[in-house]
Specification:
The structure holds two protein chains of two kinds. Chain A contains no helices and nine strands. In chain A, strand 7 and strand 8 (100-102) form a beta hairpin. By secondary structure, chain A is mainly β. The chains are: A mainly beta, B mainly beta.
Chain lengths: 111, 119
């Protein structure tokens, strides 16, 4: 099972919006609405930001939103803030012999 | 408050074994599926293994299949990962993660325990 493909880095200025893509196949991202997104600051455990493609857990800012089209899911961060600078990972259920697969990760830099 | 506390990490020689534990509190452990996720130094997240709430279903990443075994003791609110035939590439921080909202996400994470495989 190969990792889902994410851009290595994305950057933006405070207040701007950025979008991170997550590309898989019809066996994972494209076949199921079980895509989730995680934020990880250096030295910290990951934090769930989006589940089931577009749902936000309680306490997560509404500046974070998710969507999906075909085999590609996306995370959009609007009104970019300094605290959003972190690594972001997507994850999806997969119908392969395994169960779950993560993306390659994207480093978000706030300029 | 949900708490997951991993333990059992350390330095082990290639070919050796190690057993990780994850102590859960703050929720009804027997009702939730659990996972192990690892992160090699400076690298991305890698899902390792899943176990259903009743232990009826388990899954493994291809990279650990046949070498690692996930288990749980609902009476002790504990999750385990038995790791055998360890390789240098198994060096990573190992996180236990609880099923969150959909059954296919990782809603809560522990702080992780470092496993180093080296001679």
């Amino acid at each position: 099972q190969s990792a889902l493909t994410q851009p290595a880095s994305v950057s933006g200025s405070p207040g701007q919006s950025i979008t991170i893509s997550c590309t898989g196949t019809s066996s994972d991202v494209g076949g199921y609405n079980y895509v989730s997104w995680y934020q990880q600051h250096p030295g910290k455990a990951p934090k769930l930001m989006i589940y089931e493609v577009s749902n936000r857990p309680s306490g997560v800012s509404n500046r974070f939103s998710g969507s999906k089209s075909g085999n590609t899911a996306s995370l959009t961060i609007s009104g970019l803030q300094a605290e959003d600078e972190a690594d972001y990972y997507c994850s999806s259920y997969t119908s392969s012999s395994t169960f779950s697969v993560f993306g390659t990760g994207t480093k978000v830099t706030v300029l | 408050e949900v708490q997951l506390v991993e333990s059992g990490g350390g330095l082990v020689q290639p070919g050796g074994s190690l057993r990780l534990s994850c102590a859960a509190s703050g929720f009804t452990f027997r009702n939730y599926n659990m996972n192990w996720v690892r992160q090699a130094p400076g690298k991305g997240l890698e899902w390792v293994s899943y176990i259903s709430s009743t232990s009826s279903s388990t899954y493994y990443a291809d990279s650990v299949k046949g070498r690692f075994t996930i288990s749980r003791d609902n009476a002790k609110n504990s999750l385990y990962l038995q790791m055998n035939s360890l390789r240098a590439e198994d060096t990573a921080v190992y996180y236990c993660a609880r099923d969150g909202y959909s059954g296919y996400d990782f809603g809560y994470w522990g702080q992780g325990t470092l496993v180093t495989v080296s001679s």
